[in-house]
Amino acid sequence: MSQVRSVGVVSPGHWFYMATVMCRSLDKIIAKQRVDDDDLPKGVLAGARDFFHSVRMVISGQMGENPPATLNAYVIAADVATPIAQEGHEGLDQRLERFAALVDRLGGRVSLSDDEVVTASDLRSFFARLQHIGDIEEYERQVRFDA
After folding, report:
1. Is 143 exposed, middle or buried, given 0-12, 13-18 or 19+ CB atoms closer than 10 A?
2. How far, CA to CA in Å, does 62 sit from each of 53, 66, 70?
3. Residues 6+ apart with CB under 8 A from 47
4. What pTM value is reported for the model?
5. How far apart are CA 3 and CA 6, in angstroms?
6. What are the structural domain ranges in the chain?
7. CB contact set of 110 (below 8 Å; sequence gap of 6+)
8. How far apart are CA 126 and CA 82, in angstroms?
9. Each residue of 92-143: pLDDT tens digit?
């Protein structure tokens, strides 16, 4: 029996490239404590914004035009961010909302406040975890394919 997947519902591996580029870009941004025009490829930033837009929709109780995809993005983000959120005192949704707000500010020349540098560091950890989960998923897919 085959399983039908809704359009737009993807696994963490789908976000692997975005997560990889965001990690590299955030390393530079954190070191400089500012964002320059060429720090983030526009397509990657657009993907990160789309991802966090879906996350924000679920946090606010909306589902948008594609509820399965919107909820899927939130589930992935929650899974990735839960260990990071447990390190601090804020809740998961608060942490994700902070990440989304920073991602929205990253397009163009921006100087980061001390709080935003901390958020950027946490966001980098988020993307590193998403990258790692996506990498494991791809490895497992290859092992099943080769077997």
Report:
1. exposed
2. 11, 10, 9
3. 15, 18
4. 0.84
5. 10
6. 12-146
7. 34, 35
8. 9
9. 999 999 999 999 999 889 999 999 999 999 999 999 999 998 877 766 766 7
Residues 6+ apart with CB under 8 A from 83: 129
Let me know: does 51 contact 96? Beta carbons within 8 Å: no
Q: Residue type for 78, please?
A: A
Closest CA to 22 of 115, 113, 134: 134
DSSP codes joined into one string, the chain: ------TT---GGGGHHHHHHHHHHHHHHHHHTEE-TTSS-HHHHHHHHHHHHHHHHHHTT---S-HHHHHHHHHHHHHHHHHHHHTSSS-HHHHHHHHHHHHHH-SSSEEPPHHHHHHHHHHHHHHHHHHHHHHHHHHHHHHHHH-
Residue type, 33: Q
